[in-house]
Write a structure and sequence with these properties.
mainly alpha, two-stranded antiparallel ribbon
Amino acid sequence: MTQIRTWKRKDFSKLVATEETHTVVSNQVLPENVRLILKSFGASPHRDQESDALVRNSYIAALRHAGWTLQSIADATDLTRERIRQIDVSIGQDLIEQIKMFPQKFPIPNLPTETIVKYKYQPYEPDAKDLARLLELQPFAQLVRSHSPRYREEAEEYAALLWKVYNEQKVTLYHLAKKLGVTHGALRFRLVRYGYMKTGGNSRAYKPIIKKNRAAI
């Protein structure tokens, strides 16, 4: 009789790295070309100041609608965050759309992003062929009753294959049970009954199958 081993979580799962990309919200800095464009408004006395201010404000609103923070735009314009907020709410969507029609003159840069690598344990998967065979044997193994000789060989193969997947492939009984559509307690019960596991006590329900009812495989 084989006694169940005590596995640690890492023995039954593999450490997998996944990458998640997020938009940077804090400490945004607009690209230098955008900062220069924003600084250029009002710099020349020959330009229409009122029209210049409207274009600048529309550009600011377009940057805000693209997700750039109040602070990032304030830093690029030497205006306060509150003034940027006031400009944003005062500009209509039609002016924003007009600005977006000239991406070369008024570029709307993509928001900065950062990639975070996260590590998590994923359970091992059973071999595809072994899982298919288990699903094939399962309905016959479940039909074994009392001292009847019917389907004894299928039940023996089913139990042996369960143990192989658990013991060699390190698939948890809980994960394997989900694949087979049964409870992990049912799998443990079967493995105890067929001598692959031991229980901690002398449970009558978990008594091993008597030898004369076993089949050779």
